[in-house]
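# nightly structure sweep
# worker-07 picked up a monomer target from the shared queue
# config: single-sequence mode, recycle default, output format = C-alpha cells
# input follows
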Amino acid sequence: MLKHSITSEIIGPASKWDRAYFNVESSNVEDSFNLEIFGVRPNLEDTLFYQDITSADMDLSTINAADFPLIKLKGNFKDEVNRTSPQLKNWRVTYTGVPEGSINVAKAYEDFNGRDTLLEGEVFNSKFAFENISEYSFDSIIVASRLEETLTRKIIWTDTVRIKDLKPREWDSYAKNIETKGLSGSYTYTVKFNPGPDQPELYLVNNTGQENFYVYVDEVNPILDVTFDGKHIVNGDLVSAQPRILITSNDENKILLQDDTSKFVLYLKSPNSSDFVELKIDGNELQFYPATDASNMAMAEYNPVGLIDGEYTLRVQTFDKTGNEAGPEPYEITFKVINETSISNFYPYPNPFTSQTKFVFTLTGSEIPDYINIKIMTISGRVVKEINKEDLGNITIGNNISDYSWNATDEFGDRLANGVYLYKVNVKHKGEGVKSYATAGDGSFKENIGKLYIMR
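# output follows
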C-alpha cells in the first residue's frame, strides 16, 4: 500500500479566514486524498480544526483569526491497490490579510534636530515615525519603549502608550522627551511599534528602532562669594553691628538649577566661644533665594541682629545640584563688631602726595553719621578747602577709603603751593558729636587736627 502526506507552509497571518480549495487528479478509483487543516497560534502551537476533508471547497470562517492568525494544510495520499498516488494540482486559501507597518526614519527627522551628547539634567529628545505600508488598516497601535544602560543592559524604565489608528499609507509619529537627571554614561533607548500580540501584522522585523545617547556629569565647582554690606572684607575687618551678609553661589550648569536650601551650609562662631553653631535657613535672619534662570545663581542673605561686641568667624560651604562643592574646604572669614557709633581720625593717603590724596577712616556701630566736614587750612589757620560728607562718596560701617580724591587745589580750583597744610575733621550724628575710635595712628593728631604734605 502506498501512503504519504505533504504539509503546506504556514499561511497568513489573517484578520479573517475565508475558504480553502484543492484540486487533485487520480488515475485509479482506488486512489484517495483527504485534507487536514490546523490552526496555528502566534507561538506556532498547532491545533487540528478539520480532518478527513474530501470536499474541494471548504468554509474556514469558523476559525477565529484573532486566536489563530496562521493556518497550515496537510494532504494525505493513499493507493492500496496499484500503488499509485493521487496528484495534487494545487491548493489555496483565501482570507483577509493583516496590515503591515514600518518605521520611517525620514519622516521622523524631517523637522527634528535632537542631540546625542548631553549634560546631566538636559532632555534627550526622541522621535520615531511609523507608517502603514499595506492596504489594510491598523487599529490604535501600542508603542512599547524602554531605556537601558548600553554596557550592562540594565533597564532604567519601561513605558507603554498608544498612537492613533492608521489607514493604508497613513503614518504617525511618537516623540518622547527623556529626562537625564541622575543619569551618567551611555544609554540605549528602544521603541517597538505593535509589539504583539495586540493585533497581527505581516512582519515585525521593521517595527523596532533604537537611539543611543551619552550623558556626562557636571564636575565643575560652583563659585562662592561672600560680601558684608556690599564689600569684600579681609580677616579681622570691622563690620556693621547689623551687617547684611550676602552669600552667592554661581554654577555654570544651566540645567540643574541651585534651588535646594540644603546645599547652603553656614556656621557662625561667636565671641568667647570655641564652637561653631549652624545657621538654619528659616526665612527670618537667614533667607534663601533659589536660582531661577540659566545664570544659575543662588543666594542666601544673612541679617543678624543682637550681635554683641567682639570677633566672629563665619564658615560657609555651598554645593551645586550635582554635589560639587565650592571648594575643598569651607570658606572662613573673621570679622569684628562694635555696637557703639564711633569714628576714627581721618588719614590722608598717600601723605605726602604730589597730585591727589584720599581719606582713610574707620566707622563703627550700625548707622552712618549724618554730618562730616573736613577743613583744609594753611599753617596760619586760613581755610583753603572744605570737604563734606556728600563729597566723600559711599561710606560704610568698617574701614573706608573715600571715593573722593583731593587734588591739592583750593575752593576756586587754583593749585596750592608745596608745603605743609593742616586739616580738621568734625563728625556729628543726630546733632551730637560722634565718639572717637582709637587707632595706632592717633599720635599724629591733636584736637582732631592732622598734617598733610604737598610735594611736587
